[in-house]
């Protein structure tokens, strides 16, 4: 078991390693990008990557406080579901409603990798590979559809 400070340091080291690994890779526009803190350009719509003790996950999260506005954006994404799966080349889990770590209601589209741990450096290559291929494809998808979400 790690202390809170040790766990924080390991997580920071993982994300720094991932960021350095991804640094030479440009986005769909050919621009340099901060992959760890991907900016979608749309308020309340986030690309999230998480690595913990038992899993890694990557998701599109909709966190708009107004439920109707959040569901409106979710429905727009749902309308693009077949194109999304075509680009991603796999089926993700679509959750119209889930509750985040704060207990707030949100929506998300998520893919998880089980049986890995950010605290086990032997699993880091699997986690990095999992994130890399998916965040690059998410960027390609977003590059094609973002204009539909701009107001």
Detailed description of the structure:
The structure is a single chain. Helix content is 41%, strand content 21%. It is an alpha+beta fold. The protein has one domain. A four-stranded antiparallel sheet has the order 1-2-4-3, covered by helices on one side. Helix 3 (81-88) crosses helix 4. The termini are far apart. 20% of the residues are buried. The mean pLDDT is 95. It comes from Mycovorax composti.
Distance between the termini: 47 Å
Number of helices: 4
| Unreliable stretches covering 5 or more consecutive residues | none
Q: What portion of residues belong to β-strands?
A: 15-25%
Summing up helix and strand content along with how strands pair, one would put the structural category as alpha+beta
Task: Give me the secondary-structure topology.
Elements: H1 4-22, E1 45-51, E2 55-62, H2 67-79, H3 81-88, E3 93-99, E4 105-114, H4 124-145
Antiparallel strand pairs: 1-2, 2-4, 3-4
Helix pairs in contact: 3-4
């Amino acid at each position: 078991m790690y202390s809170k400070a040790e766990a924080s340091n390991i997580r920071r080291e993982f994300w720094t390693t991932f960021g350095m690994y991804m640094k030479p890779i440009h986005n769909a526009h050919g621009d340099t990008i901060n992959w760890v803190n991907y900016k979608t350009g749309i308020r309340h719509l986030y690309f999230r990557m998480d690595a913990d003790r038992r899993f890694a996950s990557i998701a599109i999260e909709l966190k708009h406080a107004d439920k109707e506005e959040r569901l409106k954006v979710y429905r727009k994404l749902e309308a693009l579901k077949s194109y999304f799966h075509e680009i991603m080349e796999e089926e993700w889990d679509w959750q119209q409603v889930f509750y985040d770590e704060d207990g707030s209601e949100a929506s998300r589209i998520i893919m998880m990798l089980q049986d890995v741990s950010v605290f086990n450096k032997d699993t880091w290559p699997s986690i990095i590979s999992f994130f890399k291929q998916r965040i690059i494809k998410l960027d390609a998808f977003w590059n094609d559809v973002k204009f539909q979400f701009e107001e």
